[in-house]
Design a protein that fits this description.
Elements lengths: L29 H13 L10 E5 L5 H8 L4 E6 L2 H14 L5 E5 L13 E6 L7 H11 L3 E11 L9 E9 L2 E8 L4
Parallel strand pairs: 1-2, 1-4, 2-3, 4-5
Antiparallel strand pairs: 5-7, 6-7
Length: 189
């Protein structure tokens, strides 16, 4: 696994190995990651990555958030509860030497989320497939007021989803068995 574009392009990230079977660790394929960032930067919505404050939920290896940093995001917060995943994220932050711009919180993204001063512009949501955790986590962060008024969410799942209350779908694409949903926070949320 490597960074696809931006200033860290080509940097090889930590070896996932066997991953974490219980956490269903399955990094987003390079091809899918490249497609996501092409949509975010060149998809007709303006560059949604440049200077974004990024929240990477169910972060896994951290590849999506780190790719965003490489392409001009200002900072990223990783939320992950798997021990193996947290170790990989820390290792990847060290590889890129981005400790100043990246923070990791080990917790369950679906549990009670405390209010936060920082508002996130770009949210990556890659929950374990088929467990209905994505909507639950997204709504928890929305309710706790973590999202900026014009927040964009990139939700990766194994099936097509309907936008949860408070969001509307801008784009939806299928890559093999992976569905990518790009959603915006509704103005009345």
């Amino acid at each position: 696994m490597r960074i696809i574009g931006g200033k860290y392009r080509g940097t090889v990230l930590a070896n996932v190995g066997k991953g974490d079977i219980l956490a269903q660790l399955r990094p987003t394929a390079d091809r899918v990651r490249e497609s996501i960032f092409n949509l975010l930067i060149n998809g007709g919505y303006g560059n949604l990555v440049q200077d974004a404050i990024v929240l990477d939920l169910f972060a896994g290896t951290g590849a999506l958030g780190l790719e965003a940093l490489s392409r001009g995001a200002s900072c990223v917060l990783f939320i992950e509860d798997g021990a193996k995943s947290c170790s990989l994220i820390r290792e990847n932050i060290d590889i890129l030497n981005v400790e100043k711009y990246a923070k990791l919180i080990k917790c369950d993204a679906t549990k009670h989320i405390q209010k936060n001063e920082i508002k996130y512009d770009l949210i990556f949501l890659d929950p374990p497939y088929g467990k209905n955790l994505g909507e639950k986590a997204l709504l928890a962060f929305l309710k706790s007021d973590w999202l900026s008024d014009d927040a964009i969410c990139v939700w990766e799942e194994n099936s097509q989803k309907i936008a949860p209350i408070g969001f509307s779908i801008l784009d939806c694409r299928k890559y093999g068995d992976t569905w990518i949903h790009i959603m915006e926070k509704s103005q009345n949320s």
